[in-house]
Amino acid sequence: MLIKGALLSKKTLKNSELKMATVHRREKGFTLLEVLIVVSIIGLIAAIAAPTWFSFLEARRLSAVRDKLYVGMRDAQVKAQIQSAHWQFSVRESNGRIEWATHPESVDAQLAQWQKVEDSQSVQLDAETTFDKTSDDVRYIIFNDDGNTELRYLGRITLSAKNAPSIKRCVIASTIIGAFRKSKEQATPDPDYRRKDRFCY
Fold first, then answer.
1. Residue 177, Cα to own-chain centre: how many angstroms?
2. How many angstroms separate the CA atoms of 92 and 140, rounded?
3. Which of 130, 146, 144, 132 is nearest to 90 (CA)?
């Protein structure tokens, strides 16, 4: 009887070990359904967040290009004051990129030393740009020997993303004493502009 009980308890012990091993095997992995649910949730979150993320990246790229053009304008203004001569800031699109140059007004813009703006392949000069334009599509502003400009040169350079044209950044020459300001797109058009088609002000 004692031997029978020992055999029975050994058998019970083996059955319970077998059950425990089966339970442990189930706990080690995920079911296909669980994996599919997690992948679906990740895909849904990515689909919602992706457009916002791409807009954020475009806005950062536009701001960086705008800041480089702003520095270029200031450079031309300072050179005009230091050298007591008329200096010109020029900007253009060339081979799908934005380029800028500072040079004496007496030097033809095409002969100036142009600098390509890094990361500007997805950026374009927007139709809101109002700086004077030469026959070869170079936009420019001229500073006199005091670093001031004339009323006819006042205006703006507006940049927009090629893939998202509603995202805009601009540099505005707002006074004849050479004051500049930077801005970005607004929800409503400029109330002070007669045609109501400018959103970067």
1. 30
2. 9
3. 132
Strand 132-133 with 87-94, pairing: unpaired
Could you tell me the pTM of the whole model? 0.75
d(CA 155, CA 177): 13
**Alpha-carbon 127 to chain mean position:** 18
Distance separating alpha carbons of residues 141 and 173, to the nearest angstrom = 9
Which string of b and e fits 123-139 if b means at least 16 CB within 10 Å? bbbbebbbbeeeeeebb
CA angle 8, 14, 20 (to 5 degrees): 135
Closest CA to 122 of 64, 78, 173: 64
Letter string b/e over residues 64-73, b meaning 16 or more CB atoms within 10 A of that residue's CB: ebbebbbebb
pLDDT tens for each residue of the chain, 201 residues long: 555 555 455 555 566 665 655 555 556 788 999 999 999 999 999 899 888 898 899 999 999 999 999 999 999 999 999 999 999 999 999 999 999 999 999 999 999 999 999 888 899 999 999 999 998 899 999 999 999 999 888 999 999 999 888 899 999 998 889 899 999 998 888 777 766 677 888
